[in-house]
Predict the structure.
Amino acid sequence: MTNTITIDDREVPFDPGQTIMEAARAAGLYIEHLCYNPQYQPHGSCKICTVKVDGKMQTACTMPAAGGQQVESASGEMMARRETLLEMIFAEGNHYCAFCTKSGNCDLQALAYRLNMHKNSFNHRYPVREIDASHPDLILDHDRCIFCGLCVRASSDKDHKEVFAMAGRGKATRLVVNTDSGELGDSEISLEDAAAHVCPVGAIMPKHGSYSTPIGQRYFDDRSIDEVDNASGKL
Amino acid sequence: MEVFKRDDLLAAVHSGIERHGAGPPSALQVCQFVQARLSCVPAAAVPVIAHALGTTTGHIVSLVSFYSFLHESPRGKYDIYLSDNITDRMLGGRTVRDELCLDLGVALSEPRLDGRVTVATTSCTGFCDQGPAGLVNGRPLTRLDRARVKHIVQLVEESQPLDQWPQEYFAVQSNIRRRDKLLSTPLSQCAALSSLAESSADRVLEQLERGDLTGRGGAGFPTAAKWRLCRDAPGDARYVVCNADEAEPGTFKDRVLLTEYADDVIEGMTLCALIVGAHKGFIYLRGEYAFLLPHLEWVLQRRRGDNLLGESIVGHSDWQFDIEIHLGAGAYICGEESALIESLEGKRGVPRSRPPYPVTHGYLGQPTVVNNVETLLAAAHIAARGGDWFGAGTKLHSVSGDCEFPGIYEFPVGCTVADIIDAAGGNGAQAVQVAGAAGHLLLADEFATPIDLKNLTTSGSFMIFGPQRELFDATANFAHFFARETCGFCAPCRTGTQLAKSVVNRMVHGSAFGRDREAIDRLVNVTPVMSHCGLGGSALNALRDLRDKCPEYYQGLFSEKEDDVLHFDLELELSEINSITGQAGVRTDD
């Protein structure tokens, strides 16, 4: 058994134990994703990185690479599915790019550009979600949350604070804070924590200094999302 | 808002912990205990439970907000759930619901102001052959009709305790209509274990293979292979789990097996445990079947007394195994084996990423066999009688809907859809939904299809639709079911089921247009193939089947006018303000 897999006609080597996503990244290949961040254990919930492995659908971020795998990722069929899924994710929350403080630095928005999503043909749900502004330095805006669980992982695995948890079911899925009051202000999270910066969509954002970066100098203004590993945590 | 005294909260939590043990894995059982004691798990109890169990508040909140039978605010003293499955509706379930609400003066899902009663709907309760059905304070209510509703309203208003209600209201019949190999030949006590004692584990596994036994929950994985994989996987401990979270709409065979044949099922579990080397097992019993708890506990206790469970089973000093019952709390997803294991560990029922599979990394990360009730029963029979006796095998079908004799039918594997319809007296059926909401729609010209692993797999749900039915009513019911039951972990299922439901609602109200039809096509192309587990994988089956098998009928559900209409539903948009101002015509889409 050789230690290579084939991703869209390109032969990609891998180390034992690597996932398809890790092997692709090491080879400089980009596979679209939202809930994956190389610094954390994969979650496999956004499903944007779904690829066809020997004909079977798998998330690249969780699927171990195995010699000889044929991986289909950038085909028209798979890219169209990703674009549809992205529309579905946009329709679920309240994503107001035009006046969002994360605009220009947002993975979700950058991915929409990458996948040429110029409109949303699904009916938006416009859910009613409350903002938690109880923390002096951070704001928790549930409108933008895509339930990727990155803040849960960052707070638990890197900050060792376990500030967040995922709760609810189905459409009522929601991010909760592990405090008696349920408010972020009563938690131990601080501006220096990884969890304060890992959010790919701006559900957790530093207060003060919004819109301080002029248009043209924002993270994705002169980059496409596929040129970088992951914008989250780098800002 | 109800205010609970801190002492009452502490007492409830500590009694729950005394009963179910300390530590985070007990969280779900403790929450259910508190729910039963206080009629909810109030916000004030969350930190108390979290601190007592050594877990986070978010963990407790995540459970209360996930499981249907846990609530943040108190339910009525009489907590009534009505089964909302299509078969209950076909028997008049919607009328029962509306009459109950009207006569009791209660809004759906909300406790009456005096705290006397709540009426809510819930997913299929598993009494489809004797509906319309429901639950009151965890006890089954079957064969509801106008007369019973009137009397129940009176009993509630008089505050009569359930023990004073006519007991036939709670009667659950087994309705076994056709017996084949498994149900016609009783298994003498410990016949399977004796057979294991007289031969060997490998010999029994060979017999299971010879009998071609595959998982009866619908997935059809070879049972012997699963047991071998578990036995051979490295681990500190091994576990056997009986999946009695029978929640597929239209399925109720496991309820009957646990009622009539609990010994054989437990014998099958014990056999599996002795073969794979497990010392502990669980029966994961769906919350809707809580009424079976006393019976099952009694059977377990009797078997312990008979030396069939516990230490030195049937005198073998190294045979050691015991079983604990874990009660579910209303979540269809927990029938998925890895979600079931998460729930066993006291967490939300979110399916795990696979690989690794539960058979090597299951309960507490250890090798675990999860088998359906029927599979375990069949395994016990095959161990006792040999694989040849089982032949091509049999399968139990839960038959409901438009037929003369709804109930349980055991048929040989490979019988046709028509065989079951004929036996049940479903003459003139226009269609059958096989394998439940997650299954397949079969029209009359497909009734010759044999039900086996090659042609048509099933978990055992068989719902018959007579010529008078609108097939779309079932499709819409299933769309609502999945929107209610999706766990919410992965984006394609969480968002796809909601979007499908919203389109279906517009179809119901005749306001769906071309763009909605395209939306369904796009969802069918994404949700089934990109979802995390089989729930998302099958959530759009019903819509897809209707689209592909009844194209003209399906087309007729969309308006001719294409894009020149408003893409919002005025009635739905106004429903919130209408409910605040008390206007009539409030629509509840959930």
Observations:
- Residues 4-74 of chain A form a domain with the Ubiquitin-like (UB roll) fold (CATH 3.10.20.740).
- Residues 76-92 of chain A form the longest helix (17 residues).
